[in-house]
Amino acid sequence: MPKKEGKHADMGKDGPAQCKRAKVEAGCSPSVMSFENPDSLFESLISPIKQEVFFREYWEQKPLLVQRNNPLLAAYYQSLFQLSDLKELCGQGLYYGRDLNICRCVSGKKKVLNKEGKVNYMQLKKDFDQKKATIQFHQPQRFKEELWKIQEKLECYFGSLVGSNVYMTPQGSQGLPPHYDDVEVFILQLEGEKHWRLYKPTVHLAREYNVESEDRIGNPTHEFILKPGDLLYFPRGTIHQADTPPGISYSTHVTISTYQNNSWGDFLLDAIPALVFDTAKEDVALRTSIPRKLLMQVDVADSTKKLSSLLRRLADRLENTRELRSADMKKDFIMNRLPPCLGCDSDTLTPGGKFPRIDSKIRLQFRDHAVITVEPDQENADEIRREMVYVYHSLKNKRETHMMGTEDDTASEEGTPQTHGLRFPLSYLDALKQIWCSSSVNVKELNLASDEEKENLALSLWTECLIEVI
Prior knowledge:
470 residues; 10-stranded antiparallel beta sheet; alpha+beta
């Protein structure tokens, strides 16, 4: 891979970061991000820092500043989103609150200056120029294909939803007060310059967004200027504030964020119910009754020893379990993530190529966009909880509604997002694992009882564009 010039600062030392920074040997080419695969995309994003160094020394630990004095990379960053794009975007029908906010930091507090309804470009420009208001544009990947490409690859890389906001701030102004977020943050400076101050976290790896007062956060631990082409990373919980310096007409940066509610604690909350249910089938201790009136007691200290004992039994089972079922996290990720970016704004994918038959060789497509889960049958309301295999995928998700909630046509009549996928008997699980774990597989070698079942499985996956015949 060609090399990219750049500097980086170790943000873990005490005291504000200095202007003078050690040079780092050239990294990969800055002219275009590498979209070959998710790994190469992330490596080009943080270049010249290597992935193993980033995760060993920075991820969830301390900020990283990468300063790149490179006009080609600066030009590429600027192409992602510009202040001048707003006029055309307003013509497409933007709404206050849903698509953008206008705000300003006044006396340490966020003052929202939104109007009602549809955004008028001339009014927006007036608020920006005269009121010195920051424009916060929500989820620009809905409109900008290059951001769609970047965030889709990052969602594949992290296995977590990746959102973004663009912030445009006029000179001598600040949009938001000091605060910390509940997400891992990557900031790309697109236009102008931004003055940043970072502070020691009051809550390490915070789970909630919170505003902090100036008198509580003390002096900044790091202070610097971001210029076009520069990148800043900091972990969730890092207190920060930023302003556009006087003499700089305006600043534009995009904040790319991920790992919201994606901790071990969240995974335990998601996976433990299924573990308890499965263990209780075999362990009578989990099926014995709780003491009389336990639910009515204020002090349950007498029951904590019993609960501790049961948790240890669960831990013992877990150590000997190869599979841990996710109840909601896995499905939520696939249902809400970006669809693949195939280089055009075409409609949903349609099956193509050869028709799968018993003598065909097949391989999985869009591996990062599909998951296999085992769940109670959603179409059978009988008292017997029959388990089925579900294959969920994001190939039919809508880019236009990514990270925008369920207010629109992504919601079903019941108000929940639509799922896209397939449902199979539990006996199909091993055959599905064969397809997922192999570079290719012959249909006739699938672990199913009959040729008819093998062909039906291949055809079902082909119809959803999840496999191709080779």
